[in-house]
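Query structure, 189 tokens:
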């Protein structure tokens, strides 16, 4: 999995499930590769909020070391059931419900969600779900461009990104993965 052309078998399986069900909005490979790298450095439990098609959690499972438990949550029951079938026997636990359901499996060393989910999840909840030193990864941001810390407030146009970057409980950065995609990576202090 160390070249950009390689797509792990579990990710391929989740992508095929996307095509069968018409679920076309999914974790991009650029984000997936970053998730796999970050998961490779994690131990304990890693999680995805709102798993949808399961591609994001497949990247997490593909990168995470053996013994690292991977859990995800999905509000839509038929979608959660499809994810359970996709990940049967892969040490991925699929929970029914919203992000609050993740409390029973926390704390996490890594929590991943897309921008749409993050906009509905209170940062206090995300903070409480992640262990000290744990990571929160949020994708699907439009790159904000270049800015300095003095200009941050005036030039950053995405209020969600701004809120995460300026939350003192985290050390955060925006990482550009493609011309049209950036990801927030935040480490809990």
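Result returned for the query:
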């Amino acid at each position: 999995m160390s070249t950009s052309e390689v797509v792990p078998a579990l990710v391929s399986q989740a992508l095929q499930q996307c095509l069968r069900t018409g679920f076309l909005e999914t974790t991009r490979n650029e984000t997936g590769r970053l998730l796999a790298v970050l998961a490779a450095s994690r131990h304990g439990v890693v999680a995805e909020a709102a798993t949808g098609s399961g591609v994001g959690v497949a990247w997490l499972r593909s990168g995470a070391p053996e013994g690292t438990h991977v859990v995800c949550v999905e509000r839509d029951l038929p979608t959660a059931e499809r994810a359970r079938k996709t990940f049967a026997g892969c040490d991925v636990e699929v929970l029914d419900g919203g992000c609050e359901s993740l409390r029973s499996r926390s704390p996490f060393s890594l929590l991943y969600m897309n921008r749409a989910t993050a906009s509905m999840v209170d940062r206090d909840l995300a903070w409480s779900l992640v262990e000290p030193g744990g990571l929160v990864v949020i994708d699907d941001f439009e790159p904000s461009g270049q800015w300095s810390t003095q200009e941050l407030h005036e030039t950053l146009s995405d209020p969600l990104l701004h809120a995460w970057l300026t939350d003192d409980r985290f050390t955060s950065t925006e990482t550009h993965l493609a011309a049209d995609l950036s990801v927030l990576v935040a480490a809990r202090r």
